[in-house]
Amino acid sequence: MGQEYDGLDGMAESVTRADSAPQGALQVRPVCGPADRRRFVELPYALYARDPFWVPPLRRDERRRLSPRHNPFHAHADIRLWLAWRHGQVVGRIAAIDDWRHNDTHQERVTWFGFFEACDDAAARELLSAVEQHARHRGSGTVRGPANPSLNDSVGLLVDAFDEEPCVLMPYNPASYPRFVERAGFQKAKDLLAWDIDMAQPLSDRLTRLADRIARQSGVRLRPVRTTRRGFAEDLDHLKTIYRAAWEPNWGFVAPTDAEITHLARDLKPILDPELVLFAEADGQPVGVAVAVPDVNQVLKHMNGRLLPFGFVQFLWRKRSISRARVLLLGVLPPYQRKGLYPLLIAELHRRGRIGGYRRGELSWTLEDNEAVNAGIVAAGGRHHKTYRLYEKPIG
Question: Are 13-193 and 197-388 equal in CATH topology?
């Protein structure tokens, strides 16, 4: 199991201490001004400084996630931030997220919590209490999370496999965090599963034969994403359509806006391997999509969250050593979901990944009760190896 960090060991004074901060007992205060926002962003870098399994994200990206100017999620949501202080040091942080698009889609009043970090149980309890009070004021009946800031982004608390590094765009936390949240009265809402695939092992003969038969009989053609400017833009439109239609029935799903999908595509495009972004076409029209991305966490691990002054050169140098990819999207239009396109896409991704030199793959995440998709992953040799949990608490 990974190490637990319940104390302040390793925290940087320059990051977490402020001369004007309250002294003495634990206090939770709203984030006010640029200095507090910097402390909010910097806290994990200090808190996890000695954790061998945490991968520091780029600070630039973390700042932009919280910026209405840079993150289009803010166009349909309100995010409020708090810091927990004790003896002049920041000992935790949390966000309350009111996503009007989610509440309208699912006809419920939910406030989400996210960006959660706490050095101990007392800090966690007070931070979660701040979100609960905010949610009552907003008229919400439930607090749910963590989402950072939504299910279309980083989501859930890791509840096992603490001795493994996270894949790109997946969260990581110490083993103590689930206990903190449960002690504050939260219960499991849903588990999200991550699956590991050993790319060195060939697919089973059964799955290979099935994929070959589907390819012959269905008339479906597989192709990689187009890389020209116009072709990429057109394929992005196809992806939007397939993604929204394929995922619409799923628990908690809220269709991202065009601006949100474009924003994510722009961020991911520099790291994409075009051979791992596949479209399935029937009668010349895209009806399915599979997107895997190289696990750049294998590079970010060594960069301490910075591209400058030398991080970009280091990134390019280390990029050649990436040996793992994450499948982050697998979707088929509803009329084609019973035509065997999922195993066809998985088999082709597996084949191309092996040719590309990838030795491991992660499929993440899937809902624990999505039996059809999970069974297909198992048939492809997938092993459930991580669980991310969403919690909720009624506050009515």
Answer: yes
Q: How far apart are CA 47 and CA 116, in angstroms?
A: 12
- Chain-centroid distance, C-alpha 99: 17
Instruction: Please state which CATH class domain 197-388 belongs to.
Output: alpha beta
Q: Nearest Cα to 196, choosing from 166, 157, 224, 171?
A: 166
Q: Using omega within 30 degrees of 0 as the cis cutoff, is the peptide bond preceding 52 cis?
A: no
Q: What is the pTM of this model?
A: 0.91
At the topology level, CATH places domain 13-193 in Aminopeptidase (3.40.630)
Query: What integer pLDDT is reported at residue 218 of this predicted model?
Result: 85
Name the burial class of residue 329, with classes exposed (0-12), middle (13-18) and buried (19+) by CB atoms within 10 angstroms of its CB: middle
How far apart CA 123 and CA 86 sit, in angstroms, is: 9
Query: Where residue 385 falls among pLDDT bands split at 50, 70, 90?
Result: very high
Say if residue 335 is preceded by a cis peptide, omega within 30 of 0: no
What residues does each domain of the chain span? 13-193, 197-388
Q: What is the distance of C-alpha 378 from the center of its chain?
A: 22
Q: What is the pLDDT of residues 16-48, one digit of tens each?
A: 544 344 446 999 999 999 999 999 999 999 999
Length of the chain: 396
The percent of the chain in helix, strand and coil, each rounded to the nearest 5, is 40, 25, 35
